[in-house]
Amino acid sequence: MGKIVLINMYFIINLPFIFLQLSGEYWLTGIKKNDNTLAVDLISGLYGNNGIPMMTLFTCFIIFLNYHYCTCHSYQNEKTLLSIFNVFIVVFFSILSLFNDNKGFYLIFIIYLLVALFVNYVNSNQNVSFKALKISLKIIGAVILLCPFVYLIYRYTPLYNVINQIVHEFLLGIYYAGSAHGSSERIGMITYALSNDSNRLMGYGIGNARWTDPGTFGFEHFGQSDFGVFLCLGGIFLIAALFIIITSLLYRLFFSYYTIIPLILLFIVLSIYTQIFTVTSLTVSVSLFCVLCSFSCKKTINLNKGLL
């Protein structure tokens, strides 16, 4: 319990600094000359300048770490305390994300949740292939039943504007490619890289620009997400090689290709969202979540397979 408390304490320590930043004290992020001065991007606690992605991924990890601890230990007082704290984190961060323009949190949290549920399901059902249809029908039924409630939440809460903005930026990235700006550049870089037949496979050359050179290929925020950057510079071959390596590493952790499918999709989404491969703190945060998922998989207990 002590280690769990220590990790949660870092989230608690950040709270007063987040409130100070909400009140306009942006100097706490340690911005320097020519750094991002957009106010909403500076509400990131002690995670540093442009630290919202790091804060998002680490917070999601804390939520599921607490959940995993509650499901694996029988100390009722600790489970109650962590459950209450988890509800607080989810509610607080959902509200905070409306103020610091962190639209990605809602999508990433849902994806983390689906990945964790899927891994737990695979762990408890060895004959997954025979039960896949049954669970799919249950999910479809649940979605149909929840549709009216989801629509009401979507239409009459701030999530309406958030979701509309996400869709709007996604479409801007597709339609305008190299002319995209801001958050839409994440999709714009992908569209730009795939639109040129001669550079689609091999890219424009990894030596032609650094990963985060502003203005490269006309993108003011070039480097804000790894997928688009790697696709522009190294093409489809570099992306394919990267995810083959990731698949191999995940298989050595879970020993099941069926289990790692949602984790690979998670890496794809996160690499489109942020610098998941080129910023160490982000890589570590996602790696911790993958290890946490592996604790729920029985096959990882077999040390004879070896993890090294």
Description:
The protein is an all-alpha fold and 308 residues long. It is 67% helix and 0% strand. The protein has ten helices and no strands. α2 packs parallel to α10 and α8 packs antiparallel against α9 (257-273). 29% of the residues are buried. Residues 299-308 have low confidence and may be disordered.
Q: Secondary-structure map with pairings?
A:
Elements: H1 2-22, H2 52-72, H3 76-99, H4 104-124, H5 128-155, H6 159-176, H7 185-195, H8 226-254, H9 257-273, H10 280-294
Helix pairs in contact: 1-2, 2-3, 2-4, 2-10, 4-9, 6-7, 7-8, 8-9
Number of strands: 0
Give the ordered list of helices and strands: HHHHHHHHHH
> What percentage of amino acids are in beta strands?
under 5%
Backbone shape: globular
Low-confidence stretches: 299-308
H/I helix tally: 10
Structural class: mainly alpha
What brief labels describe this structure?
disordered C terminus, mainly alpha, 308 residues, globular
Task: Describe what is shown at a glance.
Helices cover 67% and strands 0% of the residues. By secondary structure, the chain is mainly alpha-helical. It is globular.
